[in-house]
């Protein structure tokens, strides 16, 4: 089998991201992953939130929904429940996913809806010109924290693991091929798949050199992806930063609980209103 | 039918929460309906699960329509001492309070009739809470109703639970025998009635009716976070979802609910959400998203008093201006306010169809009184489904989801359609959904969305108002207050009623011609006269007087009647 050409997913629009932005790496990895999985653009839906990451749907020649700030997960969930035949991939930023949209993440994880969430985590608000986010390290000076960030950063991987996510991974936009493999595995995973992508903001919080120094690949260490305990341990490492799949298990998906409604699924149902006679008997 | 042939009964069941107040009222209501009465059932309860005090009123009219509750009743079934003492005040002349012998008021009162309700339950081996069924039996006996009909209601209610049905039927019969010793003055007339053909009429609440309306328009996806008084919509749809093969889901918040529904609609599902004012507040950001992405969505907002948590289990009409203006920016929307379950059903259907026809958010503005009260309906007709401009043809490449058209409505395809790609964008965008800040494109898109208003206004003028009766005086109202006014007008002649059904777009011309040359009185269940403000805004109309109520309760028809009458005298 020959893979499709990643260029088929290119809308031809020139990205407006800053030169050297980590988003380019994610875009490239995504296109390659879809191409290697030979997914037809018409069967893929990219859902994006608000922030620099959100532009990615402008550059992906697939179906797309550029939604409001923080609501990528419920939007994607609705799409998937309405038509499980679609491959639904959410893109979110660290502000989008972990600040305003945080309330949705543990629930998407625990309900194991078969959607993928790729978080472009640059530890800063870029599009609004550099304010603190929930993943900005302690003490970092930003426009909204001129005296240093007073808050301890959130650990997204621990959160996803604790919420019962069945696929938890971390990628690095500087390692495009590695990230591509993660995205492929996420798409092939049956259930909610979560990838936090370390993705430096070259303008407001450039962490490239430090990340290049610190990241290492989990798959080179004999890490057992079935072990929740090992996954938690790895997610807590700070001296060196592991990337790769931390955890992957199988569990029934949310749409399986709605199997009664999936033949055909709500989105593909010809318009045929129900017979009222049966419904009304309880009121007689 | 001459007035003397009309039988007009008011019954009340009162007691602590968990004592079966509401179940008893529905048993009474259905039994009366199957005798041929037109029935209305409403309830009032605090926001707690056990204890407290609640009541339900059953108003049954033979030879006429039962529009609403009234201030006084013929009989009260009191399920505790507090209820027996307090609700004596609600009796008509000649009315009685039925209670257990242990619950008789400390101060003896000839209007209180005590029976060993709980002892009978014990003798029959039932749980002590079942004494309400014995009490219902007493009322049936006193009224001259047929025990067989009530038993069949019980067997229908306990379908599949034979033992519970048999026990309750025994309890009912024991109470019935006791009740025959009572005289309520209507027994002979009730006994001479020829019962209606069973299984014809419906006793249906506004919440179920609106859900049925949406189902009749092809609803396949429903998401809601529980909120009184909208939750019964969730409960009803959740229960029937397997039979109908639809998705009914309770997510983590109202934010999630409406975003899921929008996602589902973008994918091609006919979707709806339901909530009350507080939940709608949370949905507002996504309301704008539905408008900007031109995704069809039906929102049912069942009002309760606010602000904030307000009175969770009571009624109000205070959210009108809120739903008309909710969300930033400007965009067309539809706001429809049903006044009874029949309209709730029809507007549930119309609302979902309109959402798809015009690709706009549609809000059905209901209220607790409508949502949780039951009315008798002859039947619900099968209504049509309109698909709108859904295109089944494949397009090669990116689909112009926001194509500029003459009526502002663009053709719509769904993701997964071979060959075509659909791109929805909640930021301002071009015809293909790609973000734009180009002033010409921005202006064109904004105008395109508003083009839809032209036809929507025509629809509003066609079906936006209901007129009842005629006269020099015209009462104007909206929502369920219509039923109270109709009840009040039963005894007044020379007064018409105008119900504004479409609140947005406002059926300006229709209202204008209806109010022409009349003395206008406005009645609504809020403090600031929100419909009055719309009349001013659209028609420069100042009503002669306004009656407002904002204590969390629906109007009493008696008060409305007296107020209207005072205006007739002043003429």
TrEMBL record, chain A:
EC number(s) on file: 1.2.7.11
Every Thiamine pyrophosphate enzyme TPP-binding domain range: 49-197
GO molecular function, one term: metal ion binding
Residue ranges occupied by any Pyruvate ferredoxin oxidoreductase beta subunit C-terminal domain in the UniProt entry: 201-260
Keyword Ribonucleoprotein: no
Cofactor(s) annotated in UniProt: thiamine diphosphate; [4Fe-4S] cluster; Mg(2+)
Pfam families linked to this entry: PFO_beta_C, TPP_enzyme_C
Keywords: Iron, Iron-sulfur, Magnesium, Metal-binding, Oxidoreductase, Pyruvate, Thiamine pyrophosphate
Catalytic activity line of the entry: a 2-oxocarboxylate + 2 oxidized [2Fe-2S]-[ferredoxin] + CoA = an acyl-CoA + 2 reduced [2Fe-2S]-[ferredoxin] + CO2 + H(+)
Subunit structure: Heterodimer composed of an alpha and a beta subunit.
UniProt protein name: 2-oxoacid oxidoreductase (ferredoxin)
Organism of origin: Thermofilum pendens (strain DSM 2475 / Hrk 5)
